[in-house]
Automatic annotation (TrEMBL):
It comes from Planotetraspora thailandica. Residues 48-75 are annotated as: Disordered. This is Peptidase. It comes from the Bacteria.
Amino acid sequence: MRGPLAPSHVPIAKSRGERFDDLVIEAVDRLKPRWGAQLASVEFAVEEVPPPSELVDGPSRLSSDPIPFGRAEPASGGHAAVVVYRRPLEARARDRDTLGTLVFDVVVEQVANLLGLTPETIDPGYDDRH
């Protein structure tokens, strides 16, 4: 009898994108005990890559303005948003643990940017990782 190798609720059955989404959710959940009130109206999203408008073309690409890992959008008529870019982070990470740390740091950096604070204020352990 043939069937799936693993039930759909088992993590092995998740796509790479779904596993990445889980990392972003875990990062936000880690911040909620301390910053829950400030994050209540913030939407978190994942996009594959940064839009072309965020990329610099030409020789300056090699010397400055690295490819962004995320962005923070202040509320303007709606909810504020933090967007994390999946592909650049996956390309940078050596393994899943490194990817989880990178995702958490990007979420911390973008939340800090959104709230006008330093990453060290958002997560006191940020400095230890950098």
